[in-house]
Amino acid sequence: MSHLHVLKTTSDSTFLKTLDQALQTLIEQDRFLLKRGANERAISFRLALHLQALLPEWNVDCEYNCWETPCHYMKQVVTGTTSAATEARTIFPDIVVHRRGTAENLAAIEIAKSTNRFSIHQDIKKLKAYKTQLGYQHTLLLSIGVDDDIGNSQVEVIA
Fold it and tell me: What is the mean pLDDT of residues 3-25?
């Protein structure tokens, strides 16, 4: 069972309930990945699939980069990376829930494993930019429990 700890809430918790359901499914169906501490990208992809099943009227994408206005115009500091980097930091959010080709943006989610050794400062800065510059309704920093922490996840709602 998932234990999603919300660090800061908003008036609309419907999306957070959906996210919690998707996390429960991730734990049930993808425990192997969580137990082995799989790459953040692999975990993000599986969570996105579970979110898509719960939100069929939305598009759920990982590391989406096809906006009408290119992201490099966002006032954002980005660390260069390659596809071989397993803990890469990029300008693209780990998961977005939106309607492609429109300005309808439900959620941008940055994911970190509970064993993450990197600072979350850049992720928070990125999420704030997605909220203010692209109008995402929910911007969330999600720490997913891995290894001995499976089932203990935390979400911080970024305003």
Answer: 75
